[in-house]
Amino acid sequence: MAAPKIILDCDPGHDDAVAILLAARHCDMLAITTVSGNAPLALTTQNALLMCQLAGLDIPVHAGADRPLLVPATHAPRAHGATGLDGPPRPEVHRSETSNDAVGCVIETVRAHDDVWLVPVGPLTNIALAFRQAPDIVERIAGVSLMGGAIGPGNVTPTAEFNIWADPHAAQIVFAAGAPLVRMAGLNLTHQLCVGPTETAALRAHGGGVSTFVADLFEFYLAGYRERAGLEAAPMHDPCAVLAVTRPDLFTFTARHVDVETDGTLTRGMTVADERPGTDASPNCEVAVSIDADAALALIVDAVCSYR
Questions:
Q1: Sign of dihedral through CA atoms 119, 121, 126, 132?
Q2: Which of 63, 56, 18 is nearest to 39 (CA)?
Q3: What is the pLDDT at residue 229?
Q4: Are 56 and 272 in contact (CB under 8 A)?
Q5: Which residues are catalytic?
Q6: Could you report the per-residue pLDDT of 227-263, keeping only the tens digit for each?
């Protein structure tokens, strides 16, 4: 069976870095597009280029939106450090982005290829802009598999997950666009897939530049969760959106209508899933509610260890 064609839209980010490595092994990656999110755009673009350089991936990287549609840009140094990939020694990046037009890349790629999956694992600004500029691409894609939102508590606020909160207006455009399929990996799902000392030790034991780099990423990432929440494991949010395309059999999904609160003082960025029995609201999303975490973790570790 042919590997799914994807565009990975990301804001690396420790878990984005792992998503890049995972997707490159299991997908036909047509492009990587970057967006302001975990760090400013210049850094998220450099981080995507760095991961491609370390792993020897010949994938075009296109820089995208440097700010949300309407709200001010906000970043997540508390989780990912000042660079977005704090932890390992940072090598000099020798690669350059292919363009600074991620939106154009999405539009042109979808028009040129059938059945492309859009896999956004950061704020949804680039995807929303592409849908608004070229509505014809919405019906051409295979679907959108996103990491974002939560059916339950958020992380950046009590009600909102960071990616959706960072650009709620873009998120609402994407959920309401009428894509053939939208799969949502929210915090209720991603907190079931956690890496800890066992996975870090496995990467160190394997050795090699990429495995050691990712082990160092995990050490930093885990230290933050240990300090902030007293946890000895940390969720691998973004790889879930990749796995929902490549291995949907690992998940349980439930069909729901999901809207995004854009303006609430206490609820901005909240993903509101209609779970009322007998609701008249038509489902617009497959919400992931469970994952075979052991199998997913094995795929992630194997993917990282497949690089030198």
A1: positive
A2: 63
A3: 85
A4: no
A5: 237
A6: 988 889 999 999 999 999 999 999 999 999 999 999 9
